[in-house]
Specification:
The complex is a heterodimer of chains A (365) and B (481). In chain A, strands 1-2 form a two-stranded antiparallel ribbon. Chain A is an all-alpha fold. Classes of the chains: A mainly alpha (365), B alpha/beta (481).
Amino acid sequence: MYLQGQNGLLHTFRVSYRNRGVAGILASLSLIVFYLLLYFTSVLDASVASLGFRNKWVFYGFLYTIAMLIGAAYYLSRHGNSRYNQLRILINVSVQIVLAFTLPLVMPLFGGPEFYASYLWPLDWYKMHPGTLQSLPVFLAVYVILGSLVAAPLLAYFYGKRWYCSWVCGCGGLANTFGDPWRHLTATSTRSWRFEQRAVHTVMFLAIASTFLLILEHILGASHDGFRRYVAGGQWWSLKSLYGAVVGSILAGVVGTGLYPIFGPRVWCRNFCPMAALLGLWQKLGRFRISVKPDMCISCGNCTTYCEMGIDVRSYAQSNQSFTRASCVGCGMCAHMCPRGVLRLENVSKRPRDKIRQGLPVVDL
Amino acid sequence: MHIVILGNGIAGMEAALTVRQREPDWEITVISEESHHCFSRTALMWVATGQLSHRCIEPFERDIYERLQFKRIRARAIGIDVETREVWLAGALPRVGYDRLLIACGSRPRPAPWPGREKVGIGHFVSMQDLEWFEKELHGGPGPAGRPLFPDAHVTSSSVDSPYYPRPSARAQRGSPPKNPVVVGGGLIGIEAVEVLASMKIESRFFIREEWFWPIALDSREAAWITSRMCRHGVDVRLGEQIESFLGEEELVTGVSTDRGIYPCDLCVVAIGVVPNTEWLRASSLMLDERGGIKVDSGLAAHLSHDPERDLGIFAAGDCASVRWYNGWQRPEQLWYTSRDQGRLAGRRLLGDSANYERGLWYNSAKLMDIEYTTAGLVNMSVEDERSWFFEEQGSVHSTSRIVLSGDRVVGFNFLGRRWDHQILLRWIEEKRSLDWVLKHLGEASFDTEFVPPLRLPEELPRALPEDGDRSRSTNAVSGF
């Protein structure tokens, strides 16, 4: 039987490992150490090979998928009484198993590339590099270009960026399953919002600008040797290596996943993911919104607390203001937790004028 | 201009925000006995289980008092001198003078009327201090995420009759969580206490004086569904049973005696409603209603009973204010969002505007166990020529819908299990729609989350039947919502 709303009361704040207790800190440290070993050393190579994996990335994909499966079972045992949650997690996990694990595992056996279809540019920053595109079969190159530049923005315009961040993306999928125990730890303060806006748009700008530079390098590099070395050289200080190390390894891996038990599961998605930032702009222009049923909010704070993106949903709900926030990944948890059924995720073509609170602005930045 | 606000609940804070928005330089003082920071009382149950922390239930960021320069005094107000325009505080603190005063001191739990009520292990579940007591009984103290922002040192220096006076807990003597907890009172606070216990897998006994749960809002069929949910969680729901006394060894509660028998009890939450927190005003000659609510005019101004014409510069808002209802009643509206609306209006009155409080038709919502509830209009209010249409959906979604008619006109809605937009329902009532029209358009008022299958009514619809008196007995005891 489907019911709306959280089924039963949670003990979130009484569980030490979920509240930056000793177990939480140890979990975070282990994750950080794992990611440092994975990205910056070859310590794992020998044991990975002895387990029969082709390379450590396949091994990592395997662990990732297992973590998502266990996390999904955990998530559904807590919030699985809602159809939205069921469908979303089911599709997200299926995408991980099929597109992000099985296909890249199997394709090379038939002479194809190790292609991760569910990761698009600019999240997978290398995908749009002329060199990468040239190395792919034509249909996959077309898929990358159309998917990243046309389909993703269009879908975000019509349905919000949730179609990607909460239904398809592996980073989002891990956050929503394995990371679910810590979703309440995401900071909700105005200060954290300011940091998010600066950080995420900076990374987005860097991702786009450096992609342009790489394309430029591809066109002009042959005649400008210095430029080629700075942009696409093999040294650690070249743009290509630096972006990969700082954004791809440190921000997405070590910080983004390593700090789940300290700062919540969406540190990467919220503050650093260039894809989330770009789709967020389309979302802001588009049709997705969280609709607020006026004058019914009791300011309990369940929505704000369980928002993994740190959006102060309550401040909108208690001001009777339907809203679209660029960062919202549409996980639906605010509507799910609301004990009064005040919130609903919607795709609307027309925006009715909502009653705006006569008092202070909702958030005074 | 010095504005003094008694109470930093939602009514007091909304008033303070409204004043500050227009008058950046006025002096605003907020006096609160219960808590340092404004919190959402409706969310106490989630703190008790650990679903939320203390910080989570604060609707405003913690720097708001400093940022908007609200001076904060934590003390118990014990009287008002309307001649010198001063508020008296407990604990020999200096009096606070005011130019305009807002009383927004809320409700207090209705005390248990039964002998033995002073025994240790008996308490309520309304205030921050009640929460502290309840958490201590259940968990032996607060959870990892916290306690209130500041300790309540001043509360012990205020009088024992204060509703916020700390209550001793039986946890130490018992040495474990309660094994035979009892909850008394079939309303929202009662079911919240039951839910908290159920979430800890503690089986409780729930005494309801009436024949079914929450009769002022539900009919017997709707209540039966909620009751079956409670039973499934191991709650022993005792309907139509009256408490007669508490039993105990020395000061500790060990049992309850009812009109049907004696039951073991090592913890009791008395949740038989709330009353305006206004005994401290008895000596002030402010006009109070028979429930103790501060009688206010349409502009929320309070008056002296012997000199009603005089302009006192005193207003009241929230649970403690007795206002005029849409149907002519004069009584407090003990709801979260009416408090908020009254607070905003009181803020404009404190600024010197003239404004009238106009309450529209009744609506409300709640969550009972895991079943959501929405109501709009005149439900269980005994309207003229009352008929009702009832449909129970038993498919992939379980829901009940009850539509109340007066003659041919739809006047009220009561829904369980699905989400509805009360604003559309209220509009239909104002448009005097017929049952046929409403059933045809019902889908437009749906507020279900995405992918929930829509409510499908069968071809052969049940007809609207005249109300039999039992099923939705009207009562005037509207409190504790």
